[in-house]
Amino acid sequence: PVDVLVMVAERGLKIRISNIEFAFDSANLTPAALPILKRVADILDRYSSYDVLVEGHTDDIGEEEYNLALSEKRSKSVMDYLVSRGIGPERLAFRGMGETAPFIPNTSAENRRRNRRVEFLLIRKEGP
């Protein structure tokens, strides 16, 4: 089983996952990422009163502009997968953050691995 934690954040709720894997220099999800994303889709079903912003992050290796574009492609891949699992596309948006918001300092290979992540911000829908 995959443990996914939903945390309270300043803009709503947040799910941070460091082990959604991509092939090197690629936005294609690896087979290991699919069970994790299936679990995220199940959680998002339970939070149907929230819209979801998928944020992709990279480490600091490479050019900043390249990392921004790669993180955007990766977050779009994750969003597309969630749509394929039945999450309504009207609830979803994606954004690449590149290397601009590291979780921890990029001072070691392990820290860089942990900074290559996807976060899901759950924002309560406005309405009646």
User: How would you write the strand order of the largest sheet?
Assistant: 1-2-5-3-4
Mean pLDDT: 89
Oligomer: single chain
How many alpha or pi helices?
Answer: 3
Class derived from helix and strand content: alpha+beta
The share of residues in helices is 25-40%
Q: Give the overall form.
A: globular
Measure the end-to-end span.
37 Å
Low-confidence stretches: none
Name the helix and strand elements from N-terminus to C-terminus, one letter apiece: EEHEHEHE
Gyration radius over CA: 14 Å
Indicate the proportion of strand residues: 15-25%
Q: Tally the beta strands.
A: 5
Largest sheet: 5 strands, mixed
Describe this structure in words.
With 128 residues, the protein is α+β, with helices and mostly antiparallel strands. It contains three helices and five strands, in the order ββαβαβαβ. The chain has helices at residues 33-46, 64-84, 109-115, and strands spanning 7-9, 12-17, 50-57, 92-98, 118-124. The N and C termini lie far apart (37 Å). The model has no long low-confidence stretch (mean pLDDT 89).
